Each structure stands twice: as C-alpha cells, then as structure tokens.
C-alpha cells in the first residue's frame, strides 16, 4: 500500500456484494466520495458475476472473486467487509497483512479467539498502523454522543438502573435460509446477531461491566442457537441493568433506558435513531434551566453507517485509533460471550473470566450439551 496522505481519498475495497453493501455501505461511501474523502476502487464477491454487476453499477474499475488477488493488484487503503461472520477473521487478517485498514460488519467474528487473532495481526497496534474496526454505528449518532458526554461528566448524577431491549420478530421463512440459526455461519442467535448493536451502545454509555448472569432458550425456532435471551448485569459504577434479546416479538422495538440520580434517559427506535427518539425526564427538583440545557443536542447526526464512516475516515487520516477497534470492539464481544457462558452453565460470569483454555473462548456454545452442534466441541485455541 502506498503511504496514506491525509488529504487523499481513502482508496476503498468493498468485499461482499449483497444487501448490506448496497443499502448501507455504498451509499455512505458515495457521500464521502463526493466530498473527496473516499474512493471505491474494487468490489469482491465469491460470485464473480455479482462482483462485476455491482462494480458496473457503481462505476468501480476492479471486480473479482479472489480477495487475495484484489489485495495484491489494487492495494487498497481500506477494506470494508460485508460478508458473513464465519469468514470475517480470515478476510480481516488477510487485509491487515496486506497493509489495509478494515471496517467489518457485525458480528465481528464467532469467538474471542478469532478476535484476538485479528488483534495479533495488527502490526504495532498504533493509530498509524492498519487496524480492524467493527460496524457499531449506534455509538456515532449525535444523540448517543450528547448523552454519553453528559453521563461522563456526571450531569445526570450516578447511573443507577438500566434496561436494554432488542425485541424483534423473525418468522420461519427467515430461518429457512440454510446459514441462519447456526453457530458456525450466523455467529449466534439474537444476543449476537441482532441485539449486539443495542448492547454495544449500552456498554458505551454505562462504562465497564463487572458481571453478568444470563438465560437463553429456544422457544419457537428449530435452530442451533437461542431465539431469546435475558441477562442481569452489574457495572463497575455499581449500577444494575437487565437485557432482553428476542426474535419472537411481533411488536418490534429497540430500547435503552437509564435511570440516574437526576434524570431518566430513554431511547426508543427500531434500526436507527434520530435526536427526537431520545427523551430525558428530569427528577423532581431539577432546575428548569438545567434540564433545558440537556436538550441541546447540537447539529443532528442520525445513527448510520455514514455517521460512523465519517469518524473512521478522519481517525485513519489523523493517525488515531477508532473507537470500535482493538479493546474498544473486544469488550462487546467479551460481554456477549460471557452472557452465553452464563446462560449455558447457570453461573455468574465476571469480566476477564474467559480466556485461552476456556471452551467459550473458542466457540460461543462452549460445547454445552443441548447447544453445541453435533460433533461441535470447541476447536483448539487458534489465537
């Protein structure tokens, strides 16, 4: 890869020509291209015809079914992975070893062992060295940034009680697609594949978690993974929280509620939010001028791939670590892994408990009876 210049468009390759690339990533990249900040230079898909079709539609000069060949031929600055989670580790490591930054769709990879292998492939790990980051776009809307800043400075007093809810609906036709509902190919059930965005935002707002006690069940769907999970969480601040992740809920909603000493903060939406989706209810006795100041969100930035990509491109240009890279991405995967281990073992799991040698480090099902696929004992530690 040629040396990156902060005033040059980020030469970007899109890997995966499916729906998420078309509906979210490419529109964001088009916007940044119009601003001179990014340029899509290649499309890769395992189906070469799909890659060529998308490349033609977007006037992209290079299309291929071979990721390795593209990395050698094009040498992009940034690789955007819009592929299934089972191939994320392999593709991310290949891109890093070729000298490219990576922005990877969720779930980032199926295990902590995979994630740590990715970290090991980051040469140096500094902001000016290529690194991998995760698509966690809900952190980057103006609402989350405003509320997060107020929480961090103590404007609402101590956080006390929180609730995080991703209750969605997926019918049997959804799971008729062969790769869905399988540990190896979807990466997990609603705790991993659906609720991960709300969970990540909760952790970003609440700070470090210390322990989790989870439950999981298959109540409707004939799948390997769960179709519903719940959890109780304790944070380092002492605050307590509950989580619910479901694909069984006809009345779909994504919601976070945080009760603090001086206010209740609520976010209610489905797949993305605007500032109007946040509500702040002051406690009795809070001065009107104080609560009015809380409502000044500044310039509105809806949560979106574009919102995060703007920050990522700027971080790369300025030599900064992006917030969802390294440990900033790992903590969410560690939390979800701990939720699964707790649910499948009936024990409380504490932050830092899961590492090499633990079966849940290499597979989210941990080889648990009734949850692991047939012959699905965890693989040896590959990190």
UniProtKB/TrEMBL annotation:
Lineage: Bacteria, Bacillati, Actinomycetota, Actinomycetes, Kitasatosporales
GFO/IDH/MocA-like oxidoreductase domain residues: 146-266
This protein's name: Gfo/Idh/MocA family oxidoreductase
Database matches in Pfam families: GFO_IDH_MocA, GFO_IDH_MocA_C3
Annotated source species: Streptomyces pakalii
InterPro entries: Gfo/Idh/MocA-like_OxRdtase_N (IPR000683), Gfo/Idh/MocA_Oxidoreductase (IPR052515), GFO_IDH_MocA-like_dom (IPR055170), NAD(P)-bd_dom_sf (IPR036291)
Classification via PANTHER family: D-GLUCOSIDE 3-DEHYDROGENASE, UDP-N-ACETYL-2-AMINO-2-DEOXY-D-GLUCURONATE OXIDASE
Gene3D superfamilies recorded: Dihydrodipicolinate Reductase, domain 2, NAD(P)-binding Rossmann-like Domain
Domain Gfo/Idh/MocA-like oxidoreductase N-terminal, chain residue ranges per copy: 10-123
Domain of life: Bacteria
Transmembrane region(s): none
């Amino acid at each position: 890869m040629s040396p990156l210049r902060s005033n040059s468009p980020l030469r970007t390759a899109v890997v995966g020509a499916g729906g998420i690339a078309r509906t979210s990533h490419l529109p964001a990249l088009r916007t940044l291209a119009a601003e001179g900040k990014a340029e899509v230079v290649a499309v890769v898909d395992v189906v070469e015809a799909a890659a060529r079709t998308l490349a033609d539609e977007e006037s992209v000069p290079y299309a291929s079914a071979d990721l390795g060949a593209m990395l050698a031929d094009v040498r992009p600055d940034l690789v955007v992975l819009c592929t299934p989670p089972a191939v994320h580790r392999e593709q991310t490591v290949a891109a890093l070893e070729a000298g490219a930054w990576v922005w990877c769709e969720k779930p980032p990879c199926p295990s902590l062992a995979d994630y740590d292998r990715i970290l090991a492939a980051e040469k140096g790990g500094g902001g000016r060295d290529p690194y991998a980051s995760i698509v966690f776009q809900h952190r980057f809307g103006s609402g989350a940034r405003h509320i997060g800043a107020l929480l961090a400075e103590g404007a609402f007093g101590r956080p006390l009680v929180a609730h995080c809810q991703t209750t969605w609906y997926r019918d049997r036709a959804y799971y008729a697609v062969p790769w869905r509902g399988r540990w190896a190919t979807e990466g997990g059930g609603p705790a991993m594949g659906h609720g991960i965005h709300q969970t990540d935002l909760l952790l970003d707002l609440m700070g470090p978690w210390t322990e989790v006690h989870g439950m999981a069940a298959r109540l409707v769907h004939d799948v390997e993974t769960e179709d519903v999970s719940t959890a109780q969480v304790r944070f380092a601040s002492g605050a307590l929280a509950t989580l619910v992740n479901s694909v069984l809920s006809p009345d779909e909603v994504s919601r976070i509620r945080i009760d603090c000493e001086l206010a209740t903060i609520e976010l209610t939406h489905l797949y993305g939010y605007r500032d109007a989706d946040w509500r702040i209810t002051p406690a009795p006795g809070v001065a009107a001028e104080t609560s009015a100041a809380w409502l000044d969100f500044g310039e509105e930035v809806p949560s979106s791939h574009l919102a995060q990509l703007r920050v990522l491109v700027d971080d790369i240009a300025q030599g900064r670590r992006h917030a969802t890279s390294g440990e900033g991405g790992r903590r969410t995967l560690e939390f979800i892994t701990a939720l699964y281990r707790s649910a499948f073992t009936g024990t409380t799991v504490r932050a830092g408990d899961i590492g090499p040698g633990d079966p849940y480090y290499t597979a989210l099902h941990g080889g648990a009876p009734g949850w692991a696929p047939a012959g699905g004992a965890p693989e040896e530690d590959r990190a």
